[in-house]
Write a structure and sequence with these properties.
Length: 474
């Protein structure tokens, strides 16, 4: 059973879950969250994020200890999945050795499962590798586990072989799921996957396509179309190699990050029909009534996969100048984004991705907050990021792009509802949006709050109040 809904720890929620012991969830709260996602929401998978966060590597043991009745009836690794996102040593040098610890934890978790179930069960057998750019990176992780974590059990330690002393390692292999996040990686994803599959006999391969970081780097429209191009090419690889490809797409609450909300589920399913697994991020789970969330997850699970649509190359001839304009406008707003982002509350205890022990998220050389705070900051000043770069496109070009990005006009209408025309007084290059906004209804209360922030009244209370109106933080 390949999951249809993956619960994630991405912190785009306005409201704090009832089980949280602090506004910024972490540690024990996230153990409870896994159980809540499985038992109440009935999501089939939880991503356990070792990349960028302080997390509990004993999650499997704690789940068995706290919720034994549930997990005796619902096997972890079969009925429900726990899938770690691990550090990529090619990028995260300071966290590189955490990859070793994470892979060791895979085998250790199987020991807990053996004691719990009385037989061999692998509660974790897949890992997600972020920022994948080559098949070599995937093969390194695959062989690191197989040749070094598992095979070392046959080495002799003084008078015994390692497995005779500490027990056998299980599972013997793991699946590695590439997470593609850049334009180049997305457009090359099919060939990267083809190379990775070339020397393996796999029944299926899961592939994770990002939505948030591509949107932040290249603009909303380009991000959607890069993903759709990747989905079509991956579909072709699966057919040619006779391997089932199961795509995952990382969709969040704002249209900029995927517009995956309980009320917009059907539109997202129609936009990405070939996707197998959709990510239910924190806003999806905690900013709507529980019954609405459960019904939305059931709609996803009941929908059959379709076919990916071909995206012609001429689409990207149009999006290139759009991306250039988006980046230019975004960089002009960067100082304001950084200032307001300081007041966007953190909902997870994350490691910093800048500074001594992190890598920097940059767009054209300008350091920016992560995608959720980036999106929240722009909405908070009345400039939804979905709208940036539109001056590069004619109405005819927008109509043409909407043939392949089907929800384009719907997403723009949503974003214009939260646009504040007064932002052009501070940033005159956005005057074109004031003219476009005349065609759309706007939320007056949201406009009042963003107007106060624009005038310099920046505080967390106003940021959160505006977020509660639109239904997501970022």
């Amino acid at each position: 059973m390949i999951p249809r809904v993956m619960s994630t720890q991405h912190p785009d929620n306005v409201f704090i879950p009832f089980f949280a012991t602090a506004p910024d969830m972490g540690g024990e709260d996230e153990i409870t969250e896994v159980f809540y996602a499985f038992n109440v929401l009935r999501a089939e998978e939880q991503m356990w994020d070792f990349e960028g966060k302080e997390v509990d590597e004993f999650v499997v043991r704690k789940l068995f200890e706290r919720y034994p009745n549930f997990f005796r009836k619902n096997r972890l690794g079969e009925d429900f999945r726990l899938t770690p996102r691990v550090p990529n040593p090619s990028v995260e040098k300071a966290e590189a050795k955490l990859l070793l610890e994470t892979l060791e934890a895979v085998a250790r978790s199987a020991d807990y499962a053996r004691l719990f179930y009385g037989e061999e069960v692998a509660p974790i057998f897949e890992v997600i590798l972020p920022m994948t750019t080559s098949s070599a990176e995937l093969n390194r992780v695959y062989h690191l586990y197989k040749r070094y974590i598992v095979w070392k059990q046959y080495k002799r330690v003084y008078d015994v072989k390692l497995y005779e002393w500490i027990g056998r390692f299980f599972p013997e292999e793991i699946n590695v799921i590439p997470l593609f996040e850049t334009k180049e990686a997305l457009l090359n994803s099919a060939e990267i996957v083809r190379e990775y599959l070339s020397d393996k006999e796999l029944e299926y391969q899961r592939v994770f396509l990002a939505r948030s970081d591509p949107a932040m780097n290249y603009g909303l429209i380009s991000a959607v179309l890069y993903d759709k191009k990747a989905l079509y090419e991956l579909q072709k690889v699966g057919e040619e190699e006779s391997v089932e490809i199961y795509p995952i797409i990382g969709v969040g609450g704002a249209p900029f990050r995927g517009h995956f909300t309980p009320e917009n589920v059907d539109a997202v399913l129609a936009e990405y029909p070939s996707v197998q697994t959709y990510t239910a991020q924190s806003s999806f789970k905690y900013d709507r009534p529980t019954m609405e969330v459960i019904k939305a997850i059931e709609r996803v699970k009941s929908k059959s996969r379709g076919k990916a649509e071909e995206v012609p190359e001429e689409v990207f001839e149009i999006t290139e100048p759009y991306t250039e304009r988006y980046q230019k406008e975004m960089l002009a707003l960067a100082p304001m984004i950084r200032e307001v982002a300081r007041y966007v509350p953190s909902r997870r205890r994350r490691k910093l991705h800048v500074g001594l022990f992190g890598y920097s998220r940059e767009v054209n050389g300008s350091a920016l907050p992560r995608a959720i705070k980036f999106t929240a900051a722009l909405y908070s000043i009345g400039v939804p990021p979905e709208l940036l770069g539109l001056s590069a496109l004619s109405e005819k070009e927008l109509e043409f792009l909407s043939e392949y990005y089907h929800g384009l006009y719907r997403d723009l209408e949503f974003a214009f509802r939260y646009f504040n025309p007064r932002v052009a007084e501070r940033f005159p290059f956005l005057e074109y949006l004031v003219k476009m906004a005349k065609e759309y209804e706007r939320d007056d209360r949201h406009g009042e709050i963003t107007g106060r922030i624009l005038k310099g009244e920046i505080n967390e209370g106003l940021v959160v109040e505006a977020a509660s109106i639109r239904g997501f933080l970022g």
